[in-house]
Design a protein that fits this description.
Radius of gyration: 18 Å
Oligomer: single chain
Structural class: alpha/beta
Helix content: 40-55%
Strand content: 5-15%
InterPro entries: SIS_dom, SIS_dom_sf, SIS_GmhA/DiaA_subfam, UPF0309
Protein name: UPF0309 protein GCM10023336_48960
Distance between the termini: 58 Å
Family: Belongs to the UPF0309 family.
Largest sheet: 5 strands, parallel
Number of helices: 9
Strand order of the largest sheet: 2-1-3-4-5
Order of helices and strands: HHEHEHHEHEHEHH
Organism: Streptomyces similanensis
């Protein structure tokens, strides 16, 4: 009988997925980082969007110590995390046709900007239309999704397409359909999701790649420092002033 605990099994599963995305998505991470660096160098702005739990990875790169100061959250009221009551309303909003267009039209995003869209399944109307409409506006789109869903589920968008079909770069998180890594005979349903761990790691890998790519071009990456270290607030104030026209989470 194995003495590996469920915690051991989960860590092993998460580590295995991280190794897969490191090895199998290396070219896509490089391309995504280069796309963000190109956008910054050209004077564009950076945005991230995710609905429900997918929003956690998007939020993790906004106003983040060690992160790019220019990354802004493109928020959809009621669909950011599980802060809406009831929480099931957020899931319902992901299936509403036309919502993405309204959000884009009322946001500061514009042609020449870049948008990272995080959606595990990539099947709902909101992320699909967000990508479609953004590209129609001249915005570059990076999709972070599990490509497996496109082969194991049906699209909920009228076009029958998925997020992955409307992106300039696709990052495949390799997460299995259902987002649960463990099973036990004594537990009636699969459990222990790893999508947040893997997707957040992919996002940070892209941010690191973008920062390095900018430095390679002789451009100082607009990075933030922790406000909990000496000099951090002064450093960030300088960055905020320098890039005030491209940072929207301070307004």
């Amino acid at each position: 009988m194995s003495d590996r605990t469920p915690a051991d099994q989960f860590f092993d599963a998460a580590i295995g997925l991280l190794q897969r995305v490191r090895d199998e998505e290396a070219d896509a991470v490089t391309a995504a980082g280069a796309l963000l660096a190109d956008t910054v160098a050209a004077g564009g702005r950076l945005f991230a969007f995710g609905a429900g739990h997918s929003s956690l990875a998007a939020q993790d790169v906004v106003y983040r110590a060690g992160g790019l100061a220019l990354m802004n959250l493109l928020a959809v009221p009621g669909a950011v995390g599980v802060d809406v009551m009831p929480a099931t309303l957020g899931s319902a909003l992901e299936r509403v046709d036309g919502l993405a267009a309204a959000v884009l039209d009322s946001s500061p995003i514009r042609a020449g900007d870049a948008l990272v869209i995080v959606s595990l399944s990539g099947r709902n109307a909101l992320p699909v239309e967000m990508a479609m409409n953004a590209r129609a506006l001249g915005i570059k789109v990076i999709g972070v999704t599990s490509v497996a869903y496109a082969t194991r589920t049906s699209s909920r968008h009228t076009s029958g397409t998925y997020l992955k079909d409307h992106c300039d770069v696709v990052l495949d998180s390799k997460i299995a359909v259902g987002d649960a890594e463990l099973t036990l005979d004594t537990v009636p349903a699969p459990f222990a999701p790893a999508s947040t761990v893997v997707t957040s790691a992919l996002m940070q890998a892209v941010m690191a790649t973008a920062a390095s790519a900018l430095a390679d071009r002789g451009i100082e990456p607009p990075l933030l420092r922790s406000g909990n270290v000496d000099g951090g607030h002064d450093w960030n104030a300088r960055v905020f002033d320098q890039y005030a026209d491209r940072i929207f989470y301070r307004r």
